[in-house]
Amino acid sequence: MSQTQPKKKIAVCFGGPSPEHDVSVVTGLQVMDAIDRDRYEPVPAYLAWDRRFFTGPGLGLRGSYRPHPLAMVGAQSCHFYNLPNYGPALLRDADGLNQRDPILVKAAVLAFHGLEGEDGRVQSRMDMAGVPYTGLRATGSALAMRKDLTKDLAERAGVPVLPHVVLTKPQRGRILPLDSIKAQVSDNFFPAIVKPCSLGSSIGVALVKDHQELLEVLPSIFAQDPQVMVEPAVQNLAEFNVSVLNRDGEILTSAIERPKQSGELLDFKEKYLAGGGGGKKGGGVKTPGDTGSGGMLSMTRDINPDLPADLEAKIRDHAKTVYTLFGNVGVPRLDYLFDQTSGELFFNEINPIPGSFAFFLWERAATPFTFPDLLNHMIDEAVAQHRWSNLDPVPKDAYLLPRSVR
Questions:
Q1: Could you tell me the fold of the domain covering 144-159+236-260+300-383?
Q2: Structure confidence by residue, pLDDT tens digits, 114-157
Q3: Per-residue DSSP letters for 29-76?
Q4: Entry pTM
Q5: Quick one: CATH architecture of 165-232?
């Protein structure tokens, strides 16, 4: 009789010292709930505020989490490493050098949002540890978190963006002189949107109507990010989002969503916390072990709104163009601003790891993916993208040191 092969373990990484820590926990729990249990066994790897990873069975339950990151009962600190003769592994720190029971992993699903998780730093840790991971590579992740640089790249590739100015925090304090602000931001920018260059999910975003209001909001935003972007607010605004992935060399786009909002700005709580629901299918369906984490699933939105054919084509074509700039890897979401009066469409930003991985957009895509299918694709891609070796990287003609062992 043939024995059943043991399931491959997948490290699901989430948390982190980010303003979006709580949303990341929600996404991580959703991943562990939705992952294909016929193929994989998820292993939680929670990144605490002190930047240590922790693992333990209790970290798969939402009730384990409290405001202090070390309050989880039974969690053990751990780290990632590529073990000779075994491969990628999650090692418990308590075992020290005596690693008798390493947790061998096929790959790591990175479910982080925001700084120190989505911005290339954890990706670099995985590269150094020799662990395959999902999403953009480290360089692409770091670049994608800079909204201003992303816009500059997109504009060079022929994708329309709004004019924007970056204001830098002064060396001392957080107040820019009004004359300096006026010299950098012209009158025709107002009303203007002000946002941190390197934070996401509507955190720190403000709408200002003149230079004086801009002066007043800058200190609070500079407290979160030393670089702040200012751009004109789009009048008669409609927003559109679409996700992109690469399947065997073919770039696919998801359903398009049009977020709804009740006020002038789509704020953080409206974006992430409205309503409830959860489960694998994203419509409030409960499944065994469901954590009850709703997150992005419950945001009020129109999926596949009725759009003019040329506008829909622009959204999808521009998304593919920007996606290519970031290496044709991962499953990011790209966001757009649309002036309903002038008919102008502007690329706004790329979200490397969208909340819930925007799986609800892929369920309604022309080429649909369920959440488990989407995770399978991401894991397969992570393994295919993996490049790691402990062999001598120096070519012989570049040797400056002896290689012989005495």
A1: D-amino Acid Aminotransferase; Chain A, domain 1 (3.30.470)
A2: 888 999 999 999 999 999 999 999 999 999 999 999 999 999 99
A3: HHHHHHS-TTTEEEEEEEE-TTS-EEE-GGGGSGGG--SSTT--TT-E
A4: 0.87
A5: 2-Layer Sandwich (3.30)
